[in-house]
Fold Glutaredoxin domain-containing protein.
Amino acid sequence: MRRLWIVLLALVVAVVGASVWQRDWLFAAAYAAGGLALVWWTAPWRGGRTTTHQEVLAMPESERSVVIYWRPGCGFCQRLKGHLGAAGEQATWVNIWQDEEAAAYVREVNGGNETVPTVVIDGVPHTNPRPAKVLERLQAL
């Protein structure tokens, strides 16, 4: 799944190339815009560099009351981020597609699955918790 963006990019290039070959400029532009947006949505670097799992472990416990493990292309992660709004900036965000140790931690606490969002609240991991629960904790900070 981490390389899904490469497959999508290849498909976008093929579809846009076929549209250009057929001189169907409008469809080529539409496919390029939509396809590249989808590629960006699933790219591991989306969201910029995030905190690593090692950096989280090095933080004092008082600074890691809410740690959110997420990955690009995850609708549940996007829903959580949208629900948290500005309060979400108080959480520590870790992209598991940028950090193999973070992905291993998520698998460890989720029975071998890379289920995200995995939110660690006061040291206790929660798999895909209700956004209201996370928001409540962030507002208490």
